[in-house]
Design brief:
about 350 residues; alpha+beta; 2 domains; two-stranded antiparallel sheet; 8 strands
Length: about 350
């Protein structure tokens, strides 16, 4: 919703409108939540709370499905933790006596801790739900960041992650949710319409009278505003007469119906396109949204995977030779350059 501003002008800057969030649509590929769900609420804190509650329902269902999918792995890890000697013997049938004779309590405890760590990582992987947006790291996230941080409990204890590049939020995460921007996995400048087209989704983004919708009361408007109200001074263009007739085709009775339709049109095709994007990496055994937050992270993951398959060895400096790291880093620092 764009609220007109009349008294915030400066010598070199003129504010014309303020963007207040009033609605959000949520859609997923989780069983029972595949239909778009639109929430309309003029109070931002309440809007974010309702969004969080609905996403938590999706997250709980997804966690349950993930636990069922990895039930064998959870069961095996639990057995190994309860009986560590059993798992070690399964790995080395011929050295039963050697294990019994030479494996001390400390080594056994180390093995148990490793198994527990794997169990925790698998549980965290299943528990955390990825929340995707398109090109909102610089814009939409900034509109609700303070309310979202409160909803996610970012000020409390536990593992929290906030990655920010200048004014752009690349990642916001806690144990339950991980907010990412799909635009970070695409070439620069790719718009939403091109993203859908690139991944074989035919539906396109809707249209909306942004400059006309400047008050909550207009949600109850019984008809669409005039065709002229859809003119965008930013794009210097208007919608077609065919698009304008959509109101009658969909049998809408209020402007809120139109708002719901526009929001849902954004998220439904988006889910399908994201699934097609993921499939591009499944053959490489990469879950892109769990493995990274952007294209460079994916490239690094694929580099190390390829190197490991080729038998390459990647070594790090140990504590004894830690001075080499600092020496190389200092000598690699660049400086001013003059070319004649």
């Amino acid at each position: 919703m764009l609220i007109p501003i009349h008294h915030s002008n400066f010598e070199k800057l003129t504010w014309t409108q303020r963007h207040d969030p009033i609605s959000v649509s949520i859609c997923s590929n989780v069983e029972g939540f595949t239909d778009p769900h639109c929430i309309v609420e003029p109070e931002v804190e309440t809007l974010v709370r309702l969004m969080g509650e609905y996403m938590s329902r999706i997250g709980d269902k997804r966690y349950q499905l993930a636990q069922d999918k990895f039930a064998d792995a959870f069961s095996q890890l639990d057995k190994d933790i309860q009986n560590p000697m059993r798992s070690l013997l399964e790995d080395d049938f011929e050295d039963v006596y050697k294990l019994d004779a030479f494996l001390d309590d400390e080594e056994l405890q180390d093995h148990v801790e490793k198994e527990k760590n794997i169990f925790k990582k698998l549980d965290a992987y299943c528990r955390q739900t990825v929340v995707l947006r398109f090109n909102s790291a610089k814009y939409d996230m900034n509109l609700v960041k303070s309310h979202l941080a409160k909803q996610l409990g970012m000020h409390g204890s536990g593992k929290k992650i906030t990655l920010k590049r200048n004014n752009s939020y690349a990642c916001l995460a806690n144990e339950s949710f991980k907010f990412l921007d799909v635009a970070s996995y695409l070439a620069p400048g790719v718009c939403y319409a091109k993203f859908l087209k690139a991944f074989d989704v035919s539906e396109n983004k809707g249209f909306f009278p942004y400059e006309w919708f400047d008050g909550v009361g207009k949600l109850n408007h019984p008809t669409l505003p005039s065709h002229d109200a859809f003119y965008s001074s930013l794009k210097e263009s208007n919608i077609s007469a065919e698009d304008y007739a959509f109101w009658r085709v969909k049998n809408m009775s209020s402007f809120q119906d139109f708002l719901d339709w526009c929001n849902n049109l954004d998220v439904g095709p988006f889910v399908q396109a994201v699934e097609n994007l993921q499939k591009c990496y499944f053959d490489s055994d990469i879950d892109i949204f769990k493995s990274s937050i952007s294209v460079p992270g994916l490239a690094r993951r694929m580099l190390f995977d390829t190197g490991r398959q080729a038998g390459a060895s990647f070594a790090l400096f140990d504590e004894v030779n830690s001075d080499l790291y600092h020496t190389i880093k200092q000598n690699s620092t660049g400086g001013p350059s003059i070319t004649f």
